[in-house]
Structure formats: C-alpha cells, structure tokens
Design a protein that fits this description.
The radius of gyration is 19 Å and the shape is globular. Helix 3 runs antiparallel to helix 7, helix 3 crosses helix 10 and helix 11 packs across helix 13. Helix content is about 65%, strand content about 0%. By secondary structure, the chain is an all-alpha fold. The two termini are about 30 Å apart. It has 14 helices and no strands.
Length: about 240
C-alpha cells in the first residue's frame, strides 16, 4: 500500500497547500459527544439525510424548518401516536418534499429510534458506545434495522452526527484502489467494505488522524480537483 503521507501531500498540493486543505477536513469528531444528542435530533438527522439522498442538498436544507414543523419536531414518541391520516396528509404538505416512501421512512425510523432508545437509554448513547473501528458493523446495523439507511445514506447520517465516519465516495474508493487496495470500482460488498475498514483503521493508528480526515484526504487526492469553495458547499461546512 502507498504510504499515507504521500497521499496527504498529493491532496495538499492539489488544493494549494496544507493551509487550504486543513480547514476542508473539518473538526475532529468526538464519538462520545454523540451520547448527548437527543432522540428528536437523531431522527431529524436521519430524515434529513434520507430526503437529501438523490436530491440537491441545499434545497432540503433551506426547506428544513418546514420539515421540522410538519413532522412535529421529530419527537419519536409523539410521531408514533399519530393516526394514519396524519401520515397520508403529509403526502400533500407543501412544507416538505412530498415523497411517500421517504415520508413512510420517518414513521418507521421513529419506531426504530424509540426501540433502541428504550434498550440503551438513548439512541445517541447506543451510537456513542459502538466501537470506533467498526463503522462497517454499525452501518450494517442501521441498514438492517432502520428504514432507507443503507449505503452512503447511513454513512452520511453518522457523519452529520459528528461520529468519526469515513464515506465511501467514488473518489475515495478510486484513491484506495490507486494506493493498492484490492477492491472493486464500486465497493459495496461486505468483503470490500471490510478491507476498507481495515485499511482506514491502519492509517488512523499510524497517523493519529480521525477516520473522517483520512476519508476526506483520500477523496481530495484524486479525481476532479474541485475548488475549496465548491467542496465546502457540497460538504455542508
């Protein structure tokens, strides 16, 4: 495998130097701090990433106050008490993006969050207690037990919570392949994801960098060389 310092140096050179690259990495995540995130903010973040998938993120972000109103502040218990008519009416509510399948996912995930919260004290405590070196296991759990939380949506959900998350974007995967990791071009299988997890863990141990930073450095080291401004807009920073 290519030494990570060389990948880091390449990313910095492409962005115009370390002083430009460093702010693009974002703050160092604090997994333990996720324990303090209340269940309504967990469900809100889930819903935002689900509605943003395949959509223009900025549009969802601008409409989000309307989503908060329409979905009763994303309080899981309150949502679970709502009758079927409440959910049917949301399909014609102009405050939100009226996608019936994604609306249904909020109802399903309210039950998911409530169930996990009862078992662990809160959903945030459950996430915070998951081993930092097993993101693949955590995202598999979210995909299996939650609604529409598979693939990159689950990864972005964790990142938006400030859990130390790598995101397997096309550029990130290309950089791993270029560095010598034997994975497919579209690495979605458990075999490939386990390889990615192991390599990210090794680099994190060697460099002391958070997995989030390693992921972003990889993505910025290859492919289209987007400007710092464009990247900040895309990443929501």
């Amino acid at each position: 495998m290519l030494d990570f310092q060389k990948i880091h140096a390449r990313a910095a050179k492409r962005k115009g130097g370390e002083a430009v690259l460093a702010p693009l990495l974002g703050p160092a995540p604090d997994n333990k701090a996720v324990a303090k995130v209340p269940d309504d903010r967990i469900l809100s973040t889930m819903a935002e990433r689900i509605f943003a998938a395949g959509f223009v993120w900025r549009v969802i972000e601008q409409k989000w106050p309307g989503f908060e109103e329409a979905f009763l502040g994303f309080e899981p218990k309150r949502l679970l008490f709502q009758p079927d008519d409440f959910w049917h009416e949301l399909a014609s509510d102009s405050r939100i993006v009226r996608n019936p399948q994604k609306i249904k996912s909020v109802r399903d995930n309210a039950a998911f969050v409530d169930r996990v919260s009862k078992e662990h004290g809160s959903f945030g405590k459950f996430i915070a207690g998951w081993p930092a070196d097993d993101q693949v296991g955590l995202t598999a759990y979210l995909a299996k037990h939650g609604s529409r939380l598979g693939g990159n949506t689950g990864q972005y959900f964790l990142r938006w919570l400030e859990w130390d998350t790598f995101v397997v974007s096309a550029d990130m995967a290309a950089a791993l392949r270029d560095a010598g990791l034997d994975i497919t071009e579209n690495p979605t299988s458990k075999r490939d994801l386990d390889k990615i997890q192991a390599q990210i863990n090794r680099w994190s141990a060697e460099t002391g960098l958070p997995r989030r930073h390693i992921s972003r450095i990889l993505a910025m080291s290859i492919g289209e060389n987007r400007s710092a401004e464009a990247l900040r807009e895309y990443m929501g920073d």
